[in-house]
Input
Amino acid sequence: MTIDPNKNYTATIDTTGGKFIIKLLPKDAPLAVNNFVFLSRQGFYNGVKIHRIIRNFVIQTGDPLGNGTGGPGYKFNDERVTRDYKPGTVAMANAGPNTNGSQFFVCLADLSTRLPKSYTIFGEVAEGMDVVLKLGDTPVTRSATGEMSAPTVDVRINSITIQEK
Output
C-alpha cells in the first residue's frame, strides 16, 4: 500500500481532448485507488489510448496495447461495490471476477440498471464532465470484436497527475 486511505486523492487526467479531474475513493476501494495512484505516478498511463468509446455508455482506457487486451502484468481482487454507476463514475474494467489490472472506464450515463455491481468503483469525475462527454462523442467504427466502439480519431491520455491532501 502506497496510499493513506484517510487522505484525499484527486487525479487530473490530461487527454488529447482536454482535462478532467477525478476524486478518488480510497475508503471505498483502497486496492483499486492504490493501484491507480501507483500506475499513474509511474507514468504507466502516459500516451495510452482511449480505446473503447460507446456513446451514452462508457469511455474506456488503461490498456498499454490499445486494443482492450493489455494490462500491467498482474491482477488484483474486486472490491465491494456500494455505489451506483452514475454519469462520471470511474470503475475498473475487468475480464471476470478478480481480474482487475490497469483498465478503467468512466460512465457517460446512468448505468445503474444496465451494469451488474461487478466493476469496482474507485472514483468520480469532480470537474470536466463536459470533456468526458465530448470524448464520448468521438466517432467510432467496429472493433476487432465487432463492437461499435473503436475510435476513428486517435484519443489518448497525455498524463495523469495525482494530488494527495
